[in-house]
């Protein structure tokens, strides 16, 4: 089942073409790994697929209008004047909140849950931000460089999370310089797309 | 909508400087002014209101600073967009929360001070209502300014929207004069209420377009 | 349907081509009428009964403040076109009109100040109309700064348009401010409907200089917008063909 498909999309910024006539699709249970050098437009492509950024040309279609997507970009979207626990309380309710606190424990953040997020290390903040995706049930997961800043244990946890979600039929789109252990189709962004 | 109001109010609650700062400054200006000039109580009463108006302008300016900046910087805006597909509700609830928790208390402080400086006690409600309403208008305008220059320090945008605050100041001035002279208050206040409804409905629409342009 | 027509006539390419032929015509008419209007006004029109000769600055002041508002109005129309139909040319025109608007508003304020010294005895007064014209001036500067502060030019085009449209509320305030405040400023002397309170011997040179200044400003606008458009679209094929 097709979750998302992009047909012949082009994007230009200040009259400079970033990519041209790019087509891709992700079905449920399938992963997509977007590769490319710095400044090749990986993050922009993710935002385009999320319909945050509008394309210059082309079409993006979702399976249905209210496709449930969870996303984490290179910005963490957590409040650093709140504690991790308070941050999660803002994001989740009821059952998913318990689930989120479960992840807090698994990711080794339980001891620091009442400290200010601003005082946590970069990796800890990244892990906290990832809980937004981990504890939410969704049909499509979109991640921008999820492995950056994570230690070995957390990376393995993330990889096994991907594996489990893919087997459950969730779609996965990610950009990463680190090869994820799950099997993905690969899209490469470079000069040939232009 | 209720979820958003809950989120915004708890975020604001923990940002002490955002809501306590403007109130302290309001109190500070209103007390410092009579101290700083040597003037009789009679003369002071004549123009104390303009001090209140100016400090109202200043504090609402301060209170709305960084209203959307933080959410933009840390990526929360993008996340909200994914959930809501639109910023209208986000903006509406944010302005609502800011007006309730900063705007109205500031108006209350202003009203108390005006009453200490020669306004009849029966007029307290009138002064309070007109100050609150002009705060509602000002917050909407400055929120727009904030949204305009979100990634360049919100000050620039607020300065560019400052001219738009002029009509609000005129209106507030007229309202206060009508309170002082005891006629025509009802017309002015209904005009302000009407404008308040209009702006609260339209401004979030404009602001959400602006925000959408920014995350684009 | 409308958008098709608008897009057909609003391509930067056709604008540059059309204005190339119109420009000499406009600049000639503008300067010619300005010279006539000003010589007539400054040398031949009779002195004012009350103000003597000092009133003659209206031949600069009045056209200037008229265009201070008209240019903003024009920018607002362009901004609407840009927001609704995404017309690129409209954004370019706003960007090139704003400095001209700022300049003419400044001239209006400055000439008003000079006029204020002999008539009111002061060169600045926090009167409603002066203040709101000053605000219009700040508005122009704000628009320019806002546009200059983003790296993504398409984004700044759109944000600028939004600001311009919102700023339109200032125009009726300037218009009506004379009635709302008790003020030193005289109410409008010239009205379209009723008879004017100004003598024809002063009115005609005034009208001529208004029209003359209008054409001059349009040709100035053509000059700046052409160079701006060519700069913005320098990667397009038609620009390379044109230059």
Detailed description of the structure:
- The complex is a heterotrimer of chains A (194), B (216) and C (243).
- Helix content of chain A is 30%, strand content 28%.
- Chain A contains 5 helices and 8 strands, in the order βββαββαααβαββ.
- Chain A has helices spanning 42-49, 84-91, 94-106, 122-134, 152-167; strands spanning 2-13, 16-27, 31-36, 57-62, 69-72, 140-144, 171-175, 185-189.
- Chain A has a 5-stranded parallel beta sheet, with helices on both faces.
- The mean pLDDT of chain A is 85.
- Chain B has one domain.
- Chain B has helices spanning 2-14, 16-36, 41-63, 69-73, 76-84, 88-116, 124-148, 154-161, 166-181, 185-215.
- In chain B, helix 6 packs antiparallel against helix 10 (185-215), helix 7 (124-148) packs parallel to helix 10 and helix 9 packs antiparallel against helix 10 (185-215).
- The mean pLDDT of chain B is 85.
- With 243 residues, chain C is mainly alpha-helical.
- Chain C has one domain (14-242): Four Helix Bundle (Hemerythrin (Met), subunit A) (Up-down Bundle), CATH 1.20.120.
- Helix content of chain C is 77%, strand content 0%.
- Chain C has 9 helices and no strands.
- The longest helix of chain C is centred in the first third of the chain and has 33 residues, at 12-44.
- The mean pLDDT of chain C is 83.
- Chain B binds chain C through residues 144, 148-149, 151-152, 156-157, 159-164, 166-167, 170, 206, 209-210, 213-214, 216, and chain C through 131-132, 135-136, 138-139, 142-143, 145-146, 149-150, 155, 158-159, 162-163, 166-167, 169-170, 173, 180.
């Amino acid at each position: 089942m097709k979750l998302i498909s992009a047909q012949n999309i082009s994007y230009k910024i200040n009259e400079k073409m970033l990519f041209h006539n790019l087509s891709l699709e992700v079905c449920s249970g399938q992963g997509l790994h977007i590769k490319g050098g710095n400044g090749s437009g990986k993050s922009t492509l993710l935002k385009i697929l999320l319909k945050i950024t509008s394309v210059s040309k082309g079409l993006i279609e979702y399976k249905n209008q209210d496709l449930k997507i969870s996303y984490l970009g290179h910005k963490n979207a957590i409040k650093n004047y709140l504690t991790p626990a308070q941050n999660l309380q803002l994001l989740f309710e009821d059952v998913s909140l318990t689930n989120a606190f479960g992840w807090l424990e698994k990711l080794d953040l339980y001891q620091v849950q009442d400290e200010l997020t601003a005082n946590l290390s970069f990796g800890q903040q990244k892990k906290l931000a990832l809980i937004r995706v981990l504890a939410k049930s969704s049909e499509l997961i979109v991640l921008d460089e999820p492995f950056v800043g994570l230690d070995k244990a957390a990376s393995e946890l993330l990889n096994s999370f991907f594996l489990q979600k893919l087997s459950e039929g969730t779609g996965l789109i990610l950009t990463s310089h680190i090869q994820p252990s799950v099997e993905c189709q690969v899209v490469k962004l470079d000069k040939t797309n232009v | 909508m209720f979820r958003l109001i809950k989120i915004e109010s708890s975020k604001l609650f923990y940002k002490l400087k955002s809501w306590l700062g403007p109130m302290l400054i309001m109190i500070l200006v209103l007390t410092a002014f009579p101290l700083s000039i040597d003037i009789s109580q009679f003369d002071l009463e004549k123009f104390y209101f303009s001090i209140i108006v100016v400090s109202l302008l200043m504090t609402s300016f301060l209170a709305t600073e960084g209203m959307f900046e933080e959410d933009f910087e840390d990526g929360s805006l993008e996340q909200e967009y994914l959930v809501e597909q639109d910023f209208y509700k986000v903006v509406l609830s944010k302005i609502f929360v800011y007006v309730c928790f900063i705007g109205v208390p500031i108006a209350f402080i202003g009203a108390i001070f005006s009453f200490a400086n020669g306004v009849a006690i029966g007029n307290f409600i009138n002064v309070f209502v007109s100050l609150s309403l002009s705060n509602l208008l000002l917050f909407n305008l400055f929120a727009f300014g904030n949204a305009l220059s979100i990634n360049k320090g919100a000050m620039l945008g607020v300065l560019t929207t400052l001219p738009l605050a002029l009509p609000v100041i005129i209106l507030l001035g007229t309202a206060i004069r009508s309170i002082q002279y005891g006629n025509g208050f009802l017309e002015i206040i209904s005009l302000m209420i009407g404008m308040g409804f209009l702006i609260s409905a339209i401004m979030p629409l404009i602001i959400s377009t602006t925000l959408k342009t920014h995350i684009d | 349907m409308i958008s098709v027509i608008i897009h057909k006539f609003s391509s930067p390419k056709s604008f540059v081509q059309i204005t190339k032929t119109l420009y000499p015509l406009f600049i000639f008419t503008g300067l010619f009428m300005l010279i006539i209007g000003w010589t007539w006004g400054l040398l031949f029109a009779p002195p004012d009964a009350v103000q003597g000769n000092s009133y003659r600055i209206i031949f600069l002041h009045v056209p200037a403040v008229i265009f201070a508002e008209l240019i903003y109005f024009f920018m607002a129309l362009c901004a609407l076109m840009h927001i609704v139909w995404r017309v690129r040319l409209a954004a370019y025109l706003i960007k090139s009109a704003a400095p001209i608007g700022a300049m003419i508003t400044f001239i209006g304020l400055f000439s008003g100040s000079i006029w204020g010294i002999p008539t009111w005895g002061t060169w600045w007064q926090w009167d409603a109309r002066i203040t709101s014209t000053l605000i219009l001036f700040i508005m122009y500067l704000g628009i320019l700064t806002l546009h200059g502060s983003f790296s993504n030019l398409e984004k700044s085009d759109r944000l600028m348009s939004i600001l311009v449209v919102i700023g339109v509320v200032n125009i009726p305030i300037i218009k009506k401010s004379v009635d709302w405040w008790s003020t030193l400023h005289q109410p409008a002397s010239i009205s379209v409907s009723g008879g004017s309170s100004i003598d024809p011997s002063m009115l005609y040179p005034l009208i001529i200089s208004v029209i003359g200044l209008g054409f001059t400003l349009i040709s100035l606008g053509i000059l700046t917008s052409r160079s701006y458009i060519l700069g913005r679209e320098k990667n397009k094929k038609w620009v390379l063909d044109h230059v």
